[in-house]
Amino acid sequence: MASVAGDDLTGQFAPGRPGKAIRRLRSFPVWRWLILLIVGAYFIVPLYAALRFVGVRSFGKVVHQPGFAAALELSVKLAAITTVLTLALMLPTAVYVQLRLPRLRRLLQGITILPIVIPPVVLIVGVLQVAPAFLKSTPYLLALEYVVLAMPFAYLSFDAGLRAIDLQTLVEASSSLGAGLRTTLWRVLLPNLRASLLSATVLTVALVLGEFTMASLDLYQTFPVWIVNFDQTSGPMSVAASLLALFVTWIFLLAIATIGGRRAQMAPGPQFSVVPVPRDRGESR
Fold first, then answer.
1. How far apart are CA 73 and CA 128, in angstroms?
2. Residue 280 has what DSSP assignment?
3. CATH class held by domain 58-266
4. Do 192 and 213 form a contact (C-beta atoms < 8 A)?
5. Is 157 in contact with 193 (CB distance < 8 Å)?
6. pLDDT tens string for the chain (285 positions)?
7. What does the alpha-carbon distance between residue 90 and residue 152 come to, in Å, rounded to a whole number?
8. Backbone phi and psi for residue 113, each to the nearest 5 degrees, phi listed first
């Protein structure tokens, strides 16, 4: 009986055995597979129909259209600048509020949600009234506006990540070892906030690559603005441009997620060592 039970437990928990994977697959309800198929068809069927309508050769024609490279380059540049500024502003703010001002966390959450509630047209009109003259003639003003739009997504991502760890203990342990605030933030907190950092980056990049209202009102031809302007000349070519914009965004987000996932897997986990403690001479054995 002991050998049979041992073999059963070994077959159940041994790595590399297909039995456990098969049991998990069987325990997956049928209705979940049905929902996945419906959702997949909802997204894939329109994309396939659009691809059949324009043809694969249309993508090569879109790339060679005037203004395509400049618009895509501007959108990628704005995405990089916005992501760096958003992470540099929101991460220290979230850490400081979690450590020093925990009572104001809900108030700050409400403030960060305001860019979602207020229409972008209202935001851009207010920004154009108070922005300095030297920023109005550069695309960097648009990057600062995108930072405001990305603020809710980044802050809420960092807030959720900070609440999942024991922040106070980590900061106190790092300070007791002589580390400063910058060292603690870079070498202690960031490795524990990889998931939050990755989600904030992905959401910010997706927001910048798909934003149209502020860029059009600022009279900058980003990639979404170029697609809308190009839509007035040719129907099939505009559909091909929209599909290309969707594929480019997917490629960027997939690259960010892949790089972040590989770094998380390559990062060494916590290592522990057992140090023997000598007994006192008077202790009984």
1. 24
2. P
3. mainly alpha
4. no
5. no
6. 444 444 444 444 445 555 555 555 556 678 888 898 998 899 889 888 888 888 788 888 888 888 888 998 999 999 999 999 999 999 999 999 988 888 888 888 888 888 888 888 888 888 888 888 888 888 889 999 999 999 999 999 999 999 889 888 888 888 888 888 888 888 888 888 888 898 899 889 989 988 998 998 888 899 889 888 876 666 777 788 888 888 888 887 787 778 766 655 555 444 433 334 344 444 443
7. 9
8. -80, -15
Domain boundaries, the chain: 58-266
Q: Which of 87, 88, 206, 213 is nearest to 145 (CA)?
A: 213
CB proximity list for 182: less than 8 A, separation 6 or greater: none
- Give the contacts of 59 (CB within 8 A, at least 6 positions apart): 240, 243, 244
Instruction: Record the pTM.
Output: 0.73
Task: Please name the residue that has the structure tokens 């509630």.
Answer: 117
